[in-house]
Amino acid sequence: SNHTCDIVYDDRSDRFSETNNPEKNPGAERAKKIYSVLSKRNKGNVNVPHFAEVPVEFLPDILSSIREYSEYHLREGDAPKKDDSDVEAVSIVYEILRRWDKALTVFESLSNCKTR
Q1: Distances (CA, A) of 97 to 12, 28, 43, 88, 102
Q2: From CA 60, how far away is CA 29, in angstroms rounded?
């Protein structure tokens, strides 16, 4: 998907319609959609189950992605406006780190063993 389409629901016809807007910034639109999902899940503290099978080694990439996606509205060009319903990135990071607190201790111990 190029993430430049808009889907609109028409009450009168009870149908959805799709329009493509090639002037949108695909990267910023994709980031906004991903961050919107993370924000909505964070409000109910339900992001964690979606990361249950993700190895702890991916944690740095996940945290970096959250920061990157949270800045979707700062991108150059026709970046979308910040959604008022978005939560702060630190809230999502905190929620995800709570899941990995014990795993991080084990991972840190294993990392220390390799350097000895």
Answers
A1: 45, 25, 16, 15, 10
A2: 23
What is the distance in angstroms between the CA of the first residue and the CA of the last residue of the chain? 47
> Tokens standing for 55?
């190895």
**98 pLDDT more than 70:** yes
DSSP of 31-45: HHHHHHHHHHHHHTT
Residue burial 19-48, b: 16+ Cβ < 10 Å; e: rest: eeeeebbeebbbbbebbbebbebbeeeebe
What is the pTM for the complete model shown? 0.62
Half-sphere exposure of 17 (CA within 13 A, CB side): 6
Of 65, 77, 78, the C-alpha closest to 31 is 65
pLDDT of amino acid 101 = 67
Please tell me whether residue 116 adopts helix, strand or coil conformation.
coil
